[in-house]
Design goal:
heterodimer, A: 251 residues, mainly alpha, 10 helices, B: 316 residues, alpha/beta, six-stranded mixed beta sheet, 14 strands, 37% helix, elongated
Chain lengths: 251, 316
């Protein structure tokens, strides 16, 4: 009950600040439409037939980063001009407070991912693994977004103001994005770069998403591994967010 | 019946600051209880502990028989707090804010709508319904903040300096509102203030605190001696003039060491206007330069100095 109440309030915040949806989808959309068209021709030389379909998984993860980052901003706004502190003395569990906000970020991610997928249809992107593949994609997007939203929630409660928060998020998001297989295939990498890319958990999520989109056969082992990895990350980020929220009142 | 019972409450922040120092007080059900103290006295910390926002370091806090340290969840359903800073969501409308509060407290929707109508009318908010909350003035936001905190029908409403920064008209309107809440809804009201007049006008019980401790607790009538005692103030051109006059003036009117404050002598009037006349005559007869002499109401500082006398050294 508390979760739904807070989720509803946060959704209203999102639509009241609709520019956050536009801003967070703008960059991934430019990558999808412009970059894929420009780089697509070059990539055909290395065996990538549809580069738009190739980079879509990476851009889905980028959308997660964007929406979840803006979800963290909500904490600063609610603290200065909102009900942040009032909710902390209301009969609502701390976990419900975090969950409500995290789920809003997940919901917003799904809206933006849906828009991206519709646009990518015009670039002949299809999900080769069919309906079951689509369900797995939905689960992976949910978990990725859940993990990121928990992380941004915790970070927003650690940092003193939104300017610092934005700076830190930019410093985290872009290196993670570029040090993954979002734009290039992994098999072309070598040495330390390959190790760094493999240490990035999003590499594995992107690889599984890519397989589900490009290839008909689902590699169960890879899918389960990605789900387990994300489950652990979700648990860690949610626990950290909860811990940070509890710390707000343990002065 | 006792609504709040605080015993030997200590709150020491993790940064080492001790905000509450063995504080003890009792609030009866259905009364307006004012906590009076200067900035930094520990008023807001006490409200934060009583509203379960902060955990006490030691001591006991019992609200309606429930221990705040161990039964916080149960206490939260019975209280509400209007903080110094308004806590309204500006992206929600007036009614959405009120309904959101009711959902947090699990008030059934039909009941919540009934309460909302009644509170909007009670707090004179009808004419603001069609405007966005972000366009409201500070006073209207404060009214909405109180109204929405009443949505859960709390047994205790905490008001943390509800009139700070308000002009006198808005303050008087707020006083009427506070009385109305108590009279119409039977809510126990616990408010903090640093205005003597406010505490005197509103309260059934006043507790004066300083440095995290209660200094005095009683009814406004019981504290009349402190709150409504006329004071005589003589302003001198300099600190030295005030000091030079202080000793000889002792033979004219009754003075204590703590009455000498910088370039002023401020004392409680023991013999009403007679003291004023005597002092005035003595000053004129001895050609002592002074800027003014007047009878005034005591300030919070005056009360503290009377109660503790500890500022005497600082003043001199």
């Amino acid at each position: 009950m508390g979760v739904l109440t807070l989720l509803q309030r946060d959704i209203k915040w999102r639509f009241h600040n609709a520019f956050t949806i536009v801003i967070t989808i703008l960059q991934p959309m430019l990558w999808l439409v412009l970059y894929s068209a420009v780089a697509g021709q070059a990539m055909q030389g290395i065996g990538i037939e549809n580069y738009t379909a190739f980079i879509l998984p990476g851009l889905i993860v980028l959308v997660c980063f964007g929406t979840c980052s803006s979800s963290g901003i909500m904490n600063y706004l609610m603290k200065t001009d909102g009900s942040f502190y009032r909710i902390l003395i209301a009969p609502v569990q701390r976990s419900s407070i975090v969950l409500g906000q995290v789920l809003e970020a997940v919901l917003c991610t799904f809206i933006e991912v849906a828009i991206m997928c519709v646009v990518s249809l015009f670039f002949s992107v299809k999900i080769a693994s069919g309906f079951f593949g689509l369900l797995v994609i939905i689960l992976l997007v949910f978990m990725t977004s859940f993990f990121m939203a928990g992380l941004t929630y915790a970070i927003s409660l650690c940092l003193p103001n939104e300017v610092l928060y934005e700076t830190v998020m930019n410093a985290i998001v872009l290196p993670i994005f570029f040090l993954s297989t979002a734009l290039f295939p992994e098999d072309k990498l070598s040495g330390g770069l390959k190790i760094a890319v493999n240490l990035n958990p999003f590499t594995h999520v992107i690889n599984v998403l890519r397989n589900l989109i490009l290839q008909g056969n689902i590699v169960t082992h890879d899918v389960i591994l990605a789900i387990l990895l994300l489950a652990v990350l979700c648990l860690i980020s949610f626990s950290w967010a909860l811990h940070r929220l509890k710390k707000e009142t343990s002065l | 019946m006792t609504a709040i019972c605080v015993k030997n409450l200590v709150k020491k922040y993790k940064n080492g600051v001790q905000a509450l120092d063995s504080l003890t007080l009792t609030v009866n059900e259905g009364e307006i209880f004012s906590l009076l103290g200067p900035n930094g006295a520990g008023k807001s910390t006490l409200i934060n502990v009583l509203t379960t926002f902060l955990r006490p370091t030691s001591g006991s806090v019992i609200l309606f028989g429930k221990d705040a340290a161990h039964e916080a969840a149960a206490i939260r359903t019975e209280i509400s707090c209007v903080a110094q800073r308004t806590s309204i969501d500006s992206h929600l409308s007036l009614t959405e804010n009120m309904m959101f509060q009711s959902r947090l407290y699990r008030v059934p929707k039909p009941e919540a709508q009934k309460r909302m109508k009644s509170l909007i009318s009670c707090f004179g908010l009808e004419r603001y319904l069609k405007y966005p909350v972000s366009s409201y003035s500070g006073g209207v936001k404060r009214r909405l903040d109180i109204a929405l905190n009443m949505m859960s029908k709390p047994k205790v409403l905490f008001l943390d300096e509800p009139t700070v920064g308000m002009d006198i008209q808005s303050r008087m309107a707020m006083w009427n509102m506070v009385k109305k809440i108590r009279n119409d809804f039977g809510t126990t009201i616990f408010l903090t203030t640093h205005y003597l007049e406010e505490a005197d006008q509103l309260s059934d019980t006043i507790c004066i605190m300083k440095n995290g401790k209660e200094v005095l607790q009683g009814s406004p009538n019981g504290l009349r001696e402190y709150l409504r005692q006329d004071m005589l103030k003589i302003n001198f051109p300099s600190k030295e003039e005030a000091r030079n006059c202080f000793e000889p003036l002792k033979s004219v009117i009754e003075l204590k060491e703590s009455d000498l404050r910088h370039d002023k002598i401020i004392t409680s009037l023991k013999n009403g206007h007679t003291d004023l006349e005597k002092a005035n005559r003595w000053l004129l007869e001895h050609d002592i330069p002074f800027l003014g002499i007047e009878i005034m109401q005591p300030t919070l500082e005056d009360v503290f100095i009377r109660l503790t006398g500890e500022d005497a050294k600082e003043a001199s």
